[in-house]
C-alpha cells in the first residue's frame, strides 16, 4: 500500500456503519438484498437503525431500497411478507419481500 492511503476492509466498513447507526439514531441499508434459494423472487432486506430512529424512518428507508431494487430488476409489484426486528449484536429490521413481474 502506498504511503498516505487508507484501506478499510468490508468488515471494518460494516462495523463503522453499524456504529454510526447505533450512535446517530439514523437508518441505513445493510448490505445487498439476499435471495431465498427455495422461493423465486423472494428477497430479504436489512435496515439498520439507531436508538433515536423510529420504525417509520426504518420503514421509509426499506421502502426506498425496495422500490429501487424493484425498478432495477424489472419487477412490477412487491409485497412485504414478513418483518422482524433484531437488536443483538446490531439493531436492524429484516423485511422479507416477495416480488412479481
* Strand/helix succession: HEEEHEE
Largest sheet: 5 strands, antiparallel
Radius of gyration: 15 Å
Q: Using the alpha-carbon principal axes, give the shape.
A: globular
Number of strands: 5
> Given the structure, what is the number of helices?
2
β-sheet strand percentage: 25-35%
Low-confidence stretches: 1-6
Round the mean pLDDT to the nearest integer and report it. Answer: 81
Helix content: 25-40%
Architecture overview:
The structure is a single chain. The chain is an alpha+beta fold and 101 residues long. 33% of the residues lie in helices and 32% in strands. It contains two helices and five strands; from the N terminus they run H-E-E-E-H-E-E. It has helices at residues 10-24, 55-72, and strands at 27-29, 34-35, 42-49, 77-86, 92-100. Strands 1, 2, 3, 4 and 5 form a five-stranded antiparallel beta sheet that branches. A hairpin with a 6-residue loop joins strand 2 (34-35) and strand 3 (42-49). The radius of gyration is 15 Å and the shape is globular. The termini are far apart. 18% of the residues are buried.
Give a short overview:
By secondary structure, this protein is α+β, with helices and mostly antiparallel strands.
Amino acid at each position: 500500500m502506498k504511503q498516505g492511503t487508507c484501506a478499510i476492509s468490508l468488515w471494518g466498513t460494516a462495523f463503522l456503519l453499524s456504529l454510526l447507526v447505533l450512535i446517530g439514531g439514523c437508518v441505513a441499508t445493510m448490505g445487498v438484498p439476499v435471495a431465498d434459494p427455495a422461493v423465486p423472487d423472494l428477497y430479504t432486506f436489512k435496515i439498520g437503525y439507531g436508538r433515536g430512529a423510529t420504525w417509520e424512518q426504518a420503514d421509509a428507508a426499506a421502502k426506498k431500497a425496495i422500490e429501487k431494487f424493484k425498478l432495477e430488476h424489472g419487477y412490477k409489484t412487491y409485497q412485504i411478507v414478513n418483518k422482524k426486528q433484531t437488536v443483538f449484536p446490531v439493531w436492524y429490521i429484516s423485511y422479507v419481500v416477495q416480488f412479481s413481474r
